[in-house]
Amino acid sequence: xxxxxxxxxxxxxxxxxxxxxxxxxxxxxxxxxxxxxxxxxxxxxxxxxxxxxxxxxxxxxxxxxxxxxxxxxxxxxxxxxxxxxxxxxxxxxxxxxxxxxxxxxxxxxxxxxxxxxxxxxxxxxxxxxxxxxxxxxxxxxxxxxxxxxx
Length: 150
Fold this sequence. Notes:
Layout (H helix, E strand, L loop, with lengths): L3 E4 L5 H12 L6 H9 L3 E8 L2 E13 L2 E11 L8 H15 L4 E7 L3 H9 L3 E10 L2 E9 L2
Parallel strand pairs: 4-5
Antiparallel strand pairs: 1-2, 2-3, 3-4, 5-7, 6-7
């Protein structure tokens, strides 16, 4: 299965919102939030396509944190039918490559404590657990992960 990674665009907003709500239901970003993130100057937004169909996306931001350029992955979404096929892995590889190209030195993200598949993916990519975020997702706890990009 060939996975093509491209820059996201506002013209894909309806499909991205569809995938976001499929993945996160109550905790999903609104369509307006996704639109704002995609068009933000400091945002890196990528889509994954299989057979010309958008099957996943990732959105990250670049911040200056303690005099260090830091990437923050805000969402990584893969449509249910395409999970465990390497889509999330490719999106993560690509955003890290873009971050490194922009001199980003570290990357961070938050994930639900009970999202074991995502936790495994991030830990396999070298992300380390920094803190537990009590009730970060309403009634569910989050985990704050961080990785140094070299």
